[in-house]
Amino acid sequence: MRVRVQTADFDISAEIAALRAGKPGIGAVASFIGVCRDINDGDSVAAMTLEHYPGMTERSIEAIIDQAIARWQVTDARVVHRVGDLRPLDQIVFVAVAAEHRGAAFAACEFIMDYLKTQAPFWKREQTPTGARWVDARTTDEAAAARWASDAPTGR
Amino acid sequence: MRVRVQTADFDISAEIAALRAGKPGIGAVASFIGVCRDINDGDSVAAMTLEHYPGMTERSIEAIIDQAIARWQVTDARVVHRVGDLRPLDQIVFVAVAAEHRGAAFAACEFIMDYLKTQAPFWKREQTPTGARWVDARTTDEAAAARWASDAPTGR
Amino acid sequence: MKLLYFARLRERLGLGEESVELPPGVASVAQLRAWLASRGGEWADALQDRSVRIAVNQDMATADTPVTDADEVAFFPPVTGG
Amino acid sequence: MKLLYFARLRERLGLGEESVELPPGVASVAQLRAWLASRGGEWADALQDRSVRIAVNQDMATADTPVTDADEVAFFPPVTGG
Predict the structure, then answer these.
(1) What is the pLDDT of residues B7-29, one digit of tens each?
(2) What is the torsional sign of CA B48, D58, B110, B74?
């Protein structure tokens, strides 16, 4: 299964081993882990809750992976995203991309993460000293996703 | 220890846990694993041996990490590189970069890997059906490292 | 039609899910949104917020996307996962 | 002076490490390289190969880098790790 949304934590080594299993043509695995920080927008964060849209979330991430595979020479990819209650230092999201060569693996991994940030239906609610608040979408995330739409050569 | 050269295998989860330990300001960890493939330049590869220059290898990787930390907003980084006899599917190299935000983590991780490929004294010798051969340096690796020297804006 | 509300919007409306029957003349996302806003109060404010995203049958939709009683339509704020 | 040879170069020369005393007039990387090449045979061929890299005390060196008997100098092909 390429995409999982779950409350449970995940093990990075096990996920990458599953992605690579039986594929000796893979030479490169780029991966990313997003982690719950203890601070956001200048306020301390004691905990957060992640909500999602069951069904659409998985579909939208599958579509993002399909786009990455169409665009780069990628063998396979895997995404795990947690929902529910999380605390600082907890792992939130995992993206891994396997490829023959590293350029494609790095590019596709960053692409998937940037698109996931702006397209996959998840919402974060943070607990701060002044109460709970929904996290606002960031214009920097929109900009990060938008740069992949450019026709500029990537050199990869 | 930020840099290790060893014959033993490594565990990705344990390495990333050590990199993150006690640092709740980290929001992003980008990592890379280079893997021994069963084919290279069109020939099947049964095994390879990695040689290095003890002392200089570790120093050069430390210098690469220092450059990455000077260039991006990076919390910490870690590199493990294996030497000795390896077979297809074996892990060869691990690079992980932790940062507050993902753009810096991705960029620094790819930078370290590209520079390691062209500057750290390691040499690969492959076993193929026609005998053993030393792997030739790739011009694509030189090009990958060279693009970081450009003054072009990276958007990160 | 099945309607879903998520995150800040769900809290604001005090409702996560409901079933409705579309009245005559409501056949697009824009018309559905206007009809729900006509409930007044929080509904008017929340649904007229320009940042609201709408998905029809789990695909992102635009104002022109057609809707029928057989569809699942979701309203939510910009996403903030990852 | 401690001299080290790695990988293809080590195999070609049949030698991984040696200690030498520099003769008068050998005070730079270029002079050291020419002196070793003057041993003839494989030494001439291997050390005149333009792709050979040279490190002095574990830092990459150029033709002009000075050398003394206290230094560690390494000769090796372009690197292929990772």
Answers:
(1) 999 999 999 999 999 999 999 99
(2) positive
Q: Is residue B113 part of a domain?
A: yes
CA distance A14 to A20: 10
pLDDT digits (tens, 9 = 90+) for C26-77: 999 999 999 999 999 999 999 989 999 999 999 999 999 999 999 999 999 9
Q: In the structure, do chain C and chain D come into contact, i.e. share 3 or more CB pairs under 8 Å?
A: no
Query: pTM for the whole thing?
Result: 0.95
Q: The sheet that has C2-5: what strands, in order across it?
A: C17-19, C2-5, C72-76, C53-56, C59-60
Pairing of strands B131-134, C17-19: unpaired
Least CB-CB distance to B134: which of D4, D7, D81? D7
CATH of the domain at C24: 3.10.20.30
Kindly state whether residue B145 falls inside one of the protein's structural domains.
no
State ipTM: 0.94
Total count of domains within chain D:
1
DSSP-derived letter for residue C66 is B
Does A32 fall in a domain?
Answer: yes
Q: Are residues B65 and B3 in contact, defined by beta-carbon separation less than 8 angstroms?
A: yes
| Spatial CA neighbour of A60 closest among C53, C67, C8 | C53
CB–CB contact A121 C79 (8 Å) = yes
Do the Cβ atoms of C65 and C57 come closer than 8 Å?
A: no
Measured between alpha carbons, how far is B70 from B89 in angstroms, rounded to an integer?
Answer: 34
Tokens at residue A19, please? 């992605």
| Shortest alpha-carbon distance between residue D21 and chain B (Å) | 22
3-state secondary structure of B86: strand
What are the beta bridge partners of residue D74? D4, D55
Cα D49 vs. chain centroid, distance in angstroms? 11
Query: What one-character DSSP code corresponds to residue A77?
Result: E
At B75-107, the pLDDT tens digits run 999 999 999 999 999 999 999 999 999 999 999
Taking only Cα atoms into account, the Rg of chain A, rounded to an integer number of angstroms, comes to 16
According to DSSP, the β-strands at A43-44 and A39-40 are antiparallel
